[in-house]
Amino acid sequence: RPSATPKPAEEENETLDLRIFGIGAAVLLAAALPFLWRALARSVRRRRFAGADSNQAVIDMYRYLTRLSRRGGIIPEEATTLAEKAKFSQHTLTEDERSTMAALTQREAESLDARLSLVKRLLLRYWFGLF
User: In angstroms, what CA-CA distances link 127 with 4, 72, 103, 109, 120?
Assistant: First the structure.
């Protein structure tokens, strides 16, 4: 019968070091995920808002305003008018109209961000990626 030979102390230390490294890496990844999520959400939002098609960009801004409104934001009447024009008109919106919508969107996002409590602000920024 072969007897169980004990592991050398070096192998046990290496195994322990690998476990500690793995746990540390997992903790760092978990801590970084909200920041990565926010950066990704902002990047996608900026790309959509700056897209070549002005009508689609305005519609995307309106969708963003709708998401903000579910969290306490207000959709300005002018934004609704521009979004309807972008969706249902056969004409392409001008750069002035697009800029107006971008300004309305930015203003409402900043206004909502300022009105929220710290906990809600952090949740909307890092969990929902809204700001």
Answer: 51, 16, 24, 16, 10
**Pair 117, 29: CB distance under 8 Å:** no
Among the listed residues 115, 35, 36, 100, the one whose alpha carbon sits nearest the alpha carbon of residue 68: 115
- Could you give the CA distance from residue 35 to residue 37 in angstroms, rounded to a whole number? 5
Between 122 and 16, residue with greater pLDDT: 122
Largest CA distance in the chain: 88
Task: Return the residue matching tokens 């929220």.
Answer: 116
Using one digit for the tens of pLDDT, what is the confidence trace for 27-53?
A: 999 999 999 999 999 999 999 999 889
Residues 81 and 43 sit within 8 Å (Cβ to Cβ):
no
19-45 in b/e form (b: 16+ CB < 10 A) is eeeeeeeeeeeeeeeeeeebeebeeeb
